[in-house]
Design goal:
mainly alpha; about 60% helix; single chain; about 5% strand; globular; AhpD-like
Length: about 325
């Protein structure tokens, strides 16, 4: 099996998304290449298939990454019984369990789990592992949702030579190329933050959204948006967000039709990529580094922030 076939099967992005946002797609593809080839492909394959099972992605669960050796097949077949099966090492059991927690309820990650993770792998390797789990999860989610929202025309693979094939580089490219308005962006960002229980992201507010009229009364409606008086455009974006970060099969034909009626293709591409960017907060939540105690906050109990022309965070201050 060729390397291009490996990419087509497990981390290739929809062609429609590639056509609209080639820089971000190129960076994400290169980041996947680096993580899969530099890490333990058997461990990542177990995580990838378990994620596919949890988010309702049977097509991804059926294919295999050729970077993982043939011995992974027996372990995949035994995944439902992984806590007890002798096929799994203790490290594999712990990582699959962590991946389940990360996907289902990252806010429920306990200090004991973090201590065990750090004790087994060390602080730096633990951070790299959690980042890899994020990447495996959200590449799948992006594949599913972008393919539903956009016309999945044939697209290039590795058409760029990314300068910064890192998670930070990818996030900056997502921000630089976003076509979403600041109001929708802020509501989507906060929906991600509250679902993932990220303390620092729930405390932050986008300055340009505040200027556009997003006050605390409006942000409070994110939690019960379907029953609120938020504009229908915002509700549709939040429906897509909920499907993206929970169960992509919630993205029904009705919701897809609503999304296409309220947003253009460039906006839908940005919405999809933005959700992956805002969901990197799950890494901090899993590692317990999402504390907001040191933020300098205003009278509303929030801290304003923004992005510069390069897509780098600016604005908020720490004590």
């Amino acid at each position: 099996m060729s390397d291009s076939t490996v990419a087509e099967q497990v981390w290739a992005l929809p062609g429609g998304l590639w056509q609209l946002r080639p820089e971000a797609c190129g960076l994400l593809t290169a980041l996947n290449e680096r993580v899969w080839r530099g890490g333990d492909p058997v461990l990542l394959e177990l995580v990838r298939v378990r994620v596919a099972q949890l988010i309702g992605n049977p097509a991804a669960a059926r294919v295999r990454c050729a970077l993982a050796d043939t011995g992974v097949e027996a372990k995949i077949a035994a995944l439902p019984d992984y806590p007890y099966s002798p096929l799994f090492s203790s490290a594999e059991r712990d990582v699959v369990s962590l991946a389940e927690q990360f996907v289902i309820d990252v806010g429920g990650t306990t200090e004991d789990m973090r201590a065990e993770l750090t004790g087994r792998f060390g602080a730096d390797a633990a951070r790299e592992l959690v980042t890899a789990i994020y990447l495996v999860e959200f590449t799948q989610r992006l594949q599913l949702v972008a393919a539903r929202l956009l016309d999945d025309a044939p697209g290039p693979v590795n058409s760029l030579a990314p300068v910064d094939a890192s998670l930070d580089g990818y996030q900056a490219a997502v921000v630089r190329g976003s076509a979403l308005d600041p109001v929708t962006t802020e509501l989507v960002r906060l929906r991600c933050a509250r679902t993932h229980h990220c303390r620092i992201c729930q405390t932050l507010r986008l300055a340009d959204a505040r200027t556009a009229g997003v006050d605390e009364a409006m942000t409070a409606k994110v939690d019960f948006y379907e029953r609120s008086d938020l504009p229908e455009r915002a509700k549709v974006a939040l429906r897509v967000t909920d499907a993206f970060i929970t169960r992509p099969d919630m993205l029904t034909d009705v919701v897809v039709g609503q999304a296409r009626a309220w947003f253009g293709s460039a906006e839908l591409a940005s919405l999809s990529l933005d959700i992956t960017k805002w969901s990197t907060q799950k890494i901090k939540v899993a590692l317990g580094t999402d504390g907001a105690d040191r933020l300098v906050i205003d009278a509303d109990g929030v801290a304003l922030f923004g992005f510069d022309a390069d897509g780098q965070v600016t604005g908020f201050r720490r004590r």
